[in-house]
Amino acid sequence: MTFRGLMRRAGNWVVCQLTSHAIRGVVSALIVAACAHPSPPAAAPAAPSSRSGVVRLRTDIEYLASDRLAGRRAGTPGSDSAADFVASRFADLGLRALFVISDCARAPCRQSYFQLFTMRTMTATNVGAIITGSDPLMRDEFVAISAHYDHLGRSATDVKDLEPTAIHPGADDNASGTAAMLELARRLAERPPRRSVLVLAFGAEELGLVGSRVFVEHPPLDLQRIAVAINLDMVGRLRRDELTVYGVESPHLRALVDSANVAPRFALSIEPKSSKRSDDYSFSTHGVPAMHFTTGEHPSYHRATDTSRLIEFAGLARVTDFVERVVRAAARCGQAGSRSRTGRSHCRRRSSRT
Questions:
Q1: Stretch (H or E) spanning 90
Q2: How many domains does the structure of the chain reveal?
């Protein structure tokens, strides 16, 4: 069942509703978890060459940033199509749906990739799945990988163009992060690390981190079981090997990042605090260590010129490789239950094949 299909059938099909609440006075969010059952998953593909990885990144970004999706503004058909695209990819990889509701009144609820929410007069969704870890003692703990899939569409709000109602394709912001998240999901599904991995595509980030706020306010699992959250936002414009990582708040997180920075090395800019401008901030405000990886802003930021033609695909592939090393290190470090009472992760370097 697709996201658009759920919306069409909401009037005569089982939709479970939870209590609405205000998100920072801006959005009244009514969480509805649709009791959807995904299509039978296809087998995960064999491990491809690095060239194939670049081709996949390019293909995904070209679709997400195409005129067909019209900029993916939350609440529009283009955003809905992007959510369906991500969910379909999760199903193709054979990933377990993340969201489920147990208190449906009219019928048994089943798993769903979608976490729907309403704001003002529109409905949007988060999309999430689980890659089960390989270690029975650690698979109930998680590393989260997130990216927001929405952008500005044709809205004149928060844009920097002289013609504000043009389509804003958002190739870097944030089709690049979404494509990298999907590529990481494929790699980790093929060779799962010790801890389980949450792969998350957030909606309505451009409206104020709405989707990620909904997620942490109504989590499908105990947030204290997340060792670290890794957020990808604008990772497609690598220049001079410069990569910024926000939220590196502890020596343990710094060790994870530094150990993953192998040749050819990035010129890393390490920031201990969140920029407060992307979805990692929602996690950090709820006690979850969270890092935001980005290649930074550029003249096309929030403009109609943020197209796939300007993405630096070889650089994006390098960033994806780097983040995979960080994720695998975070998913193996420490022992089971190695979060302190303050919610901080005690990840340390240790040898492992995964």
A1: helix 77-92
A2: 1
